[in-house]
Amino acid sequence: MFYRENGQFKTSYRSDQQIFVIAQDRWAILALIAFAFVGVPMVVDEYMFRAILIPFLILSLAALGVNILVGYCGQISLGSGAFMAVGAYMAYNTYIRLDGIPLIVAILSGGFFATLVGVFFGIPSLRVKGLYLAVATLAAQFFCDWAFLRIGWFTNNTASGSVSVSNLSIMGLVIETPVEKYLFCLLFLIVFGLLAKNLVRSAIGREWMAIRDMDVAAAVIGIRPMYAKLSAFAVSSFIVGVAGALWGFVHLGSWEPAAFSIDRSFQLLFMVIIGGMGSIMGSFFGAAFIVILPIFLNQFLPWAGSLVGVVISTAAISHSEFMIFGALIVWFLIVEPHGLAKLWSVAKQKLRLWPFPH
Amino acid sequence: MAFFLEALLGGLMAGMLYSLVALGFVLIFKASGVFNFAQGAMVLFAALAMARFSEWAPQILGLDNKILANVVAFVLAAALMFVLAWLIERYVLRHLVNQEGVTLLMATLGITYFIDGLGQTIFGSDIYKIDVGMPKDPVFLLDSVFPGGVLVNLEDVYAALIAALLVVTLSLFFQKTSTGRALRAVADDHQAAQSIGIPLNRIWVIVWFVAGITALVAGIIWGSKMGVQFSLTTVALRALPVIILGGLTSVPGAIIGGLIIGVGEKLSEVFLGPYVGGGIEIWFAYVLALVFLLFRPQGLFGEKIIDRV
Q1: Residue B174 pLDDT > 90
Q2: In this structure, is the dihedral angle defined by the CA atoms of residues A60, A65, A68 and A69, taken in order, positive or negative?
Q3: Nearest CA of chain B to the CA of A187: how many Å?
Q4: Which of A15, B184, B209, B230 has its CA 20 to 30 A from that of B267?
Q5: Chain A: residue whose CA lies nearest to B288
Q6: pLDDT number for residue B139
Q7: How much is the pLDDT for B79?
Q8: Which helix (DSSP H) or strand (DSSP E) does residue A227 occupy?
Q9: Are residues A333 and B96, on separate chains, in Cβ contact within 8 Å?
Q10: Of A267-271, A354-358, B105-109, B256-260, which gets the smallest average pLDDT?
Q11: Contacts of residue B238 in chain A, CB cutoff 8 Å?
């Protein structure tokens, strides 16, 4: 009843090409952003920030990057964890090696180096595709794991092999409390989300989708596969690298290569698949699902156990978490292979006609 | 020279074991087009089952004979793998027919998590031993040719022999039996196979079961080498470059690819490793496969990839 575009006339090209064509969408998103900036810091406690909201923001940024590569350009990558690692470690290196460099520049430089590495490891995509490519990108993962573990320069030769940053600040504003960290990540997410949304609507985004749908046909109609594929790798790994830098700097504070292991790559791919391939919105849904599910299971299982009078040991809990997580993933892929974003768009379609569908 | 030969032999032995794991991947990919990431988890699961059954069998059945206990454990573990294959076909694959490759890949990742959790819930998560009576002593070969001879682990030799035996059995099974023919038909073309009356679902169960058996054999060999523990699952990741190198759809490719990767890893670790700080074998295999892919995208023996618009 409330969600329909009757009477909203588009009188200029500009209004026809907005991101959210329907006024209700626009207002809802603006309200959501305003709530995220103002409302959330007022109502949410510190634990929620640390355990859920900050990881959610950063991982949805990373999932956004992976979605550009996997969902929009169709190049399956299992090396996203490595690109996050490159972002984190190179941001760390620019941050400590160049005196007085602003924090934001350091984080962006992490993205820049991740771009270089991403394009390099994207070169095989010109020759191989599909599952072969997925395995080929694992090379990036294992190589980066090794490099950050064994080459002392990257970790500034710290004895323990883990690096840490502290006293983050931008232009005199200190980023220390969870709320400040949250707002910092939120800013990044909104800027990059807007950027990504506009990229995928533009000419280059359509080139990516053409390559995804059928690369030979795309080449025939004059799209350069090399340019399209490598640009997707570049944009994707830039965003993923920035997310990695944020993950290291803001969320972890101190980290070692294990923080960006192959499990991270799988996790990001899960987010993209469950959220919905080729959908910006889906990245957020997927990230929320994957971040919240383990925490939920962790809380829920002991409670469910105590309900039926069984005390479940910690080991059993972690094992059953594995099992339920795996089973849920499979179940989800079976019932909704197009992801949460598909459910979302179906819901919107229904809502337009509600409550008089005929 | 003796040192080089030692490294070479070690590499060949390791390669044989990689090809065993890679074989499981190739079987499933050929027959159902599923890139089965769960193969590593299946190796762990099978090894855990084997280790625990061989421990429980003497206690429950009162068997004194170690060989008999091992045989009972093997049969039970194989039966378990069959149940697993059936469950996977019934509850996962059947519902995911005609989905994209990446969706199936993620589904097998889900299965991986599930099997990991299940195995450790049922069988416990400590480190277990598998003792099938493989000799542990090293022997020296070619004493007369080189001073000191070439050191070879007898256990590795047996392992390689078992692996070779399994490969021969499998290829006989594929070439000579009617089930094997049906499997190859399904691998060639799902629809055509179905139209001449080959039951696709049953074929999938069989192929997952065969992959389960190779996982069991691989699990026993790896498990008796380094103990049954969670790190067995990483064996799958070591086997991935093998199938890329050999071709996703080729059984001989898995074997030869395994040997090349095994030798390449070992030689690089021994001769190149010291210069860059060691531990390079894991990514060296991938880079080797990657370079190879640039020149031959379908792998050594894979079917030629033809694109049509």
Answers
A1: no
A2: negative
A3: 31
A4: B230
A5: A139
A6: 67
A7: 94
A8: helix A225-246
A9: yes
A10: A354-358
A11: none
Most B CBs within 10 A among A123, A135, A215, hence the mutation to make, goes to A135
- Is A245:A184 a contact under the CB 8 Å cutoff? no
- Please state, in angstroms and rounded to a whole number, the distance separating the CA atoms of residues A349 and A344: 9
Give dist(CA B4, CA B1) in Å, integer. 5
* Residues 6 or more apart in contact with residue A339 via CB below 8 angstroms: A273, A274, A275, A276, A277, A279, A282, A285, A286
First vs last C-alpha separation in chain B:
54
Q: Please give the Cα distance from A118 to A115 (Å, whole number).
A: 5
The total number of residues written for chain A in this structure = 358
For A125, the closest chain B residue by CA position comes to B294
Nearest CA in chain A to B290: A136
Indicate if the pLDDT at residue B140 is higher than 80: no
Question: Is B103 in Cβ contact with A150 (below 8 Å)?
Answer: no
Please report the domains of chain A, with CATH numbers, ordered by start residue.
Answer: 47-353 (1.10.3470)
Taking the C-alpha atoms of residue B237 and residue B21, their distance in angstroms, rounded to an integer, is 10
User: Cα–Cα distances in Å, from A130 out to A55, A74, A84, B100, B244?
Assistant: 30, 8, 22, 10, 12
Give the nearest partner residue to A131 out of B35, B110, B287, using CB atoms. B35
The residues near B43 (Cβ < 8 Å, ≥ 6 apart) are B21, B24, B215, B218, B219, B222, B232, B233, B235, B236
Helix (H, G, I), strand (E, B) or coil at A278: coil
Region B92-114 average pLDDT? 85
Cβ-defined contact of A319 to B117 (cutoff 8 Å): yes
The span from the CA of B38 to the CA of B40, in Å, is 5
Residue of B nearest to A216 (CA): B309
Question: E-assigned strands of A89-151?
Answer: none
Taking one residue from A and the other from B, the number of pairs with CB-CB distance under 8 angstroms is 141
Q: Which CATH architecture has domain B2-295?
A: Orthogonal Bundle (1.10)
Token code pair at residue A32: 């959501």
To the nearest whole angstrom, how far is the Cα of B45 from the nearest Cα of chain A? 13
* A129-152 mean pLDDT: 86
Residue B146 pLDDT exceeds 70: no
Cβ-Cβ contacts under 8 Å, A313 against chain B: none
Is pLDDT above 70 for B137?
A: no
Task: Please list every residue in chain A whose beta carbon sits closer than 8 Å to the beta carbon of residue B276.
Answer: 150
Selection from B93, B97, B83 nearest residue B42 by Cα? B83
Could you tell me the CA-to-CA distances from A171 to A99, A112, B265 in Å, in that order?
15, 22, 50
Spans of all domains in chain B: 2-295
ipTM reported for the complex surpasses 0.85: no
A43-52, A81-90, B224-233: range with lowest mean pLDDT:
B224-233
> Which chain A residues contact residue B95 at CB under 8 A?
334
Residues in contact with A225: Cβ distance below 8 Å, sequence separation at least 6, in sequence order: A126, A211, A215, A218, A219
Q: At what angle do helices A280-307 and A340-353 cross, to 10 degrees?
A: 100
Report how far residue B39's alpha carbon sits from residue B229's, in angstroms, rounded to the nearest whole number: 15
The reported pTM is 0.89
Average pLDDT over residues A160-173: 81
pLDDT at B75: 92
